[in-house]
């Protein structure tokens, strides 16, 4: 059974692999400009990646929580998921399907994030995106969202390492005031909640804010409102390339199996 998810700019259809191949052809026939596949925790076989390419896919969006099996599999809720994800990435490289990688930033992978860019570059991905997770609770594991002031600096260090490795690197879902000079690596993400102190911030119009539950738990002490007129979130060619790569209109196709985080 197909399921639809939409975030304004992106529309995702979730279903079986066989349905994905049908939807790609239908989307192409309807003139959809960009069709991407987002494998679930079980990944895709080499044959499936080749079949998606033959059906006209523009690329894959692969999720990788860490550069080693224990941390990735824990987040994915499936033993063997890391092996499946890396096999998917290598299969995509073998048949020349463009790939980007997304790493959700959690309290559990913050300190192992630095190892991810090397793996992402090694498998020939075009770009890497760190996405700050909202305050979700996973059964048996409690809260998974990181303290922003602790985790975001690790993410920024990892972005710099990714760029040194030749990747385009972006961050989504982080308050702009925590990004410092790397603010132009932010890509658009759904708007969340804002503290009262955000009202006068010069970055308010382009900032995603903070998860509402996070604000209730930790208040707004980590946020630093920018002066009015201090600048917008992003400009220049790099920011445009990141926006083109990680946001904008596209149709996403994913397997029915869901990621728990
Ligand atoms: S102070 Fe608020 S609006 Fe300004 S950048 Fe930080 S979170 Fe965004």
From TrEMBL:
Gene3D superfamilies: Aldolase class I
Protein name: Radical SAM protein
């Amino acid at each position: 059974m197909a399921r639809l998810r939409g975030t304004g700019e992106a529309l995702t259809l979730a279903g079986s692999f066989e349905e994905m191949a049908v939807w790609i052809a239908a989307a192409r026939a309807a003139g959809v400009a960009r069709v991407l596949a987002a494998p679930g925790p079980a990944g895709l076989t080499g044959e499936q990646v080749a079949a998606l390419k033959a059906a006209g896919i523009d690329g894959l969006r692969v999720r990788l929580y860490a550069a080693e099996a224990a941390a990735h599999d824990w987040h994915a809720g499936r033993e063997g998921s890391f092996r499946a994800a890396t096999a998917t990435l290598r299969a995509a490289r073998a048949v020349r399907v463009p790939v980007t990688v997304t790493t959700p930033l959690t309290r559990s992978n913050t300190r192992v994030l630095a190892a991810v860019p090397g793996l992402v570059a090694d498998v020939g991905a075009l770009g890497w995106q760190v996405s700050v997770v909202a305050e979700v609770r996973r059964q048996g594991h409690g809260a998974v969202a990181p303290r922003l002031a602790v985790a975001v600096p690790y993410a920024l260090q990892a972005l710099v390492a990714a760029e040194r490795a030749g990747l385009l690197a972006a961050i989504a879902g982080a308050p702009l005031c925590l990004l410092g000079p790397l603010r132009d690596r932010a890509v658009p993400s759904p708007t969340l909640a804002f503290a009262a102190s955000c009202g006068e911030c010069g970055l308010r119009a382009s900032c995603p804010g903070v998860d509402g539950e996070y604000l209730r738990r930790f208040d707004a002490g980590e946020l630093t409102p920018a002066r009015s007129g201090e600048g917008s979130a992003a400009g220049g060619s790099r920011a445009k390339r990141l926006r083109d790569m990680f946001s904008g209109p596209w149709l996403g196709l994913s397997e029915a199996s869901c990621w728990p985080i």
